[in-house]
User: Fold Aldehyde dehydrogenase family protein from Pseudomonas putida.
Amino acid sequence: MTTSHYIAGHWVEGQGSDCISVNDPALGQPFAELMAASVSQVDQAVAAARSALPAWKSTCASERAAFLRGFAEQLGQRREALVTVQMRNNGKPRHEAEIDLDDAIATFGYYADLAEQLPSKNRTVPLAAPGFTARTRLEPVGVVGLIVPWNFPLVTSAWKLAPALAAGCTVVLKPSEVTPLIEQAYGQIADALGLPAGVLNIVNGKAETGAALSNHNGLDKLSFTGSNSVGSQVMRSASAQCRPVTLELGGKSAIVVFDDCDVDQAVEWIVAGISWNAGQMCSATSRLLVQDGIADALLPRLQAALENLRVGNPLTEEVDMGPLTSQAQWLKVASYFATAREEGLQCLAGGHALDREGWFVSPTLYTDVPKDSRLWTEEIFGPVLCARRFATEEQAIAEANDSRFGLVATVCSADLERAERVADALEVGHVWINSVQAVFVETSWGGTKGSGIGRELGPWGLSAYQSVKHVTRCLG
Assistant:
């Protein structure tokens, strides 16, 4: 794994000072190592992207679409290898890893279709003033830096990479140092397809590499997905350059269950919202608001459902939930268990790390959690669910919106008119009604408040990598 960086169409050895240890979280042991890119290599990657930009943005839209479809096809051909990497490096159960791959494939296919439609978006604009004509052009924003997280590698990078390439941008991609292996597939696919050198560059590394990229004055835009603490640093570097950013940050999302809901169905939606990817999702619905009339029936069944989840090594066991992806995250979640004990929270399920090798914790449920508890207000990024009861629709909306985050929410009710009304009142970027968290490439992704800036997916994801030019001509 020494040639772990893809720069200007070539695989090169890392020249940085950091050695990245790649771990199997189910065993708590490393299985690969690679050297980080140096600051100089980040410079080389940005220079390669800058050099490739004029030709790539001039490439006809149908040719860019053909490359994107090639990415989709090549991902499918690598299915078993990529699913295995997700299971081994992330700890994802097989069914989750397969959905991740299908999501990435669908994303490249969708933006291939949008790329083909780009010529029709350049159009004449009618003017009220006589003697002038005007037209619009949608142009690539330029060289973009993409920094992606460890919880959904391959997927989050597809959400950024596909629209950026469709728009005609060139790219420097930095994967997470926790999960650096799977994005290597994008460089391998670029080689296989004959993607022009410099259009896609991949640099691996830790904080030094990320800072070198986010601070680089050769970028025209930066798109970042990750924690709020790092996101604020990205914003500071962007402000120094007066450079546009897309930020997809944290969440502390609510799932609202009304008393007319089927109990067993509600339990299914609640469990999926907190246990998928072991709760390591910015969209995890970790705040359960349950109406008084259903709470006494729902909470015991929810407790049993969480206790019955099969937790284990996805490579050797049939599991519902795998380990946390890193030791650092395992220690963080364990610290919240300690905080819950200090606060005297009532624990109905879990509340502890599992006594086995690897970074496993128990699916956890706390009830009657005070609104000022750290567990109610802070993003934990683990399978830790906090519940509160409510009496009225107005109270549910107020408590759901009482957060510094605003990413997603779920509403569960047999009264669809009420569900739609509540969805409209929630201060978030995406709401599910009577559903698990199904994310479709045609919809938008992003949040309000402290959950970020901008939107990914759908046509909004493409427009994030485009600038608008107007050409006005005097006819006199």
In short: The two ends are 64 Å apart (CA to CA). The chain has a mean pLDDT of 96. Residues 94-116 form the longest helix (23 residues). The CA atoms of residues 138 and 182 lie 32 Å apart.
